[in-house]
Hints:
The complex is a heterodimer.
Chain A: H1 3-19, E1 25-27, E2 34-36, H2 37-42, H3 58-65, E3 72-73, H4 92-103, E4 109-116, E5 119-126, H5 137-153, E6 157-163, H6 171-175, H7 177-190, E7 195-203, E8 217-220, H8 231-238, H9 249-254, E9 260-261, H10 264-278, H11 285-291
Parallel strand pairs in A: 5-6, 6-7, 7-8, 8-9
Antiparallel strand pairs in A: 1-2, 3-4, 4-5
Chain B: H1 9-26, H2 30-53, H3 57-64, H4 72-79, E1 80-86, E2 98-105, E3 108-115, H5 121-126, H6 134-150, E4 154-160, H7 167-171, H8 174-187, E5 192-201, H9 202-209, E6 213-217, E7 221-223, H10 227-235, H11 241-248, H12 252-257, E8 263-265, H13 276-294, H14 299-312
Parallel strand pairs in B: 3-4, 4-5, 5-6, 5-7, 6-8
Antiparallel strand pairs in B: 1-2, 2-3
Helix pairs in contact in B: 1-2, 4-13, 6-8, 8-9, 10-11
Amino acid sequence: MNWVSEVVRPRIKTLFRRETPENLWVKCPDTGQMVFQKDVEANLWVIPGSDHHLRMNSTQRLKMMFDEGTWLDVALPDAPVDPLRFRDEKKYLDRLKDARAKTGLRDAFKVGFGRLEGSPTVIAVQDFGFMGGSLGMAAGEAFLRGAETALDKRTPFVLFAASGGARMQEGIFSLMQMPRTTVAVRKLNEARLPYLVVLTNPTTGGVTASYAMLGDIHLSEPGALIGFAGPRVIEQTIREKLPPGFQRSEYLKAHGMVDAVVHRRDLKATVARLCRQLMKQPLPEAAAEPETGAPPPPVAA
Amino acid sequence: MRAFLDFEKPVAELEAKVDELRALGENGDGVAIGDDVIRLEAKAAAALKDLYANLTPWQKTLVARHPDRPRFLAYAETLLTEWTPLAGDRKFGEDEAILAGFARFRGEPVCVIGQEKGTNTETRLRHNFGMARPEGYRKAARLMELADRFGLPVLSFVDTAGAYPGIDAEERGQAEAIARSTEACLALGAPNISLVIGEGGSGGAIAIATANKVLMLEHSVYSVISPEGAASILWRDPSRAQDAATAMKITAQDLLRFGIIDEIVPEPTGGAHRGPHEMMNRAGDAIEAALRDLAGREPDELRRLRAEKFEAIGRTIG
């Protein structure tokens, strides 16, 4: 072995890999149809044809929402790491390290401050790719900091929820994020700043049982799984098959929990419109013209 | 095809003749028939005007329930932009008998609550003929609380035979839901305007019509119970509905005299359904004027004015 085989060759390999990405094709989870990845990306990660909404990571989400795809990252505070010195099959610290390497994030939250159709807005996104978007101390701090930033700047606070629930590896400290984030929501309420929640696939567990169900308005993406206990847990407990569509966005709307099921392509406009109305802002000049007299936009699914 | 009510028969006959002559005229031989048409048309218009100037309370009830009468969604489409309906009571379900959401009215953001009866079999079923269950009132109350927090005026459009009388509705606390919704109206620190566009049926109506200003369309009705209901309770005979309608004083004109409502919005001759567009414009102007009257008042003042208005009802009639 010499430096050529150890250093040069792998580098050349990675160069090539970049040019021919492995996942050129995406398989639709609904229909099994194979779709060109570029087409899916250009369609905001919605499969053309079946309209299946694929997961987006936090960066893609912020890019989709903010004007010109640009924003300022809100610096997130550090939280104590691994308070329980937890270890299951793997050390929690190693899991964290892996998740950080994989996502480039410090934890499961990304918070951006930027313009949404011209209006300053704080948007927080939970990244499911980081340990299932689980809610631990760092995520709790991130939510609090996001809400504080909105309070400081007097802007709406928009949350994109995506989470498997509490982070088991932080035990009781994770559970305590439920009341902590609720305090932050109450502060937004008291300051009369809009707090909009967008429920994305999946939003479950302690996240749903706290800040994700306390929005002034709840929007959700089509077909998203939203619930407290996951469907597998319920099935195993009651030993019954669950009805089709159970705990999906449309089901939650019919059961009074979600205001509107919004297709991803309409999401930015819908969030922006509601924020403007609740903040009593005038219509933006450009949007004012085509809106008048037009039929109501299809927000309700 | 226009749907005619029974009492409109003379007008219907005249209008049918006009149509007949028109069809003849199109087959040539124009002049003589043209004169006839104009004369007959004038006669039909006069008969319609005459008829609608003197509607009995029962006839007004029928007009208020006319199948072609513009419903809430027609007003929403015409008067609102950025209409974003929001669903659900966050407790049990979504009830489409009451639609509610945020929108802009003449450019200004508002909260809108409307009872929708539907316009065909499919939509009538979906909206349960405009009869809300507890979920509908709880959704209304939830949105009024939001409107209060963000200081947005609330516009409500009333058109219901009443709250839905059903086992499920009772089980889930219909009465409590109506009471809370009325309370939410009174707690509003933003101005609220109610417009009765068809039927204002009892508690089902007051739950969203406890407002700073209550307006009624000229031929709409508003009462504690439907004439049929009153007839079956008081006369033990539902066929006495006409007598009940008269006895109960349910017309906009009666209610304005009693100080129950603040203003009557005139309808086009022959009722709102004969000139929907004109009707919407008049309704929009009336709502705008009412909002202007209340503009710039503090939340506490709005609450006080509303409370005093309802406290005073009945104390001034002698």
